[in-house]
Amino acid sequence: MSKKIIDRIYGLPFSLIILILLAKYLDLFIIPTWVLMVVICWGVFAFLAEALKNRKKKV
Question: Of 6, 20, 3, 1, which Cα lies nearest the Cα of 48?
Fold first, then answer.
């Protein structure tokens, strides 16, 4: 079965958040704060979209 686009991007923001946080706080390279905010907003959107999808399945 092929995954839908939301299923593919659901885990990506969370792994990006972890990598960016590690790079930012270990001072591996300079990361602007806005990049972290974009990835966090992307993660929130993916989380809410998944929650709405699961809610519609239960009803």
Answer: 6
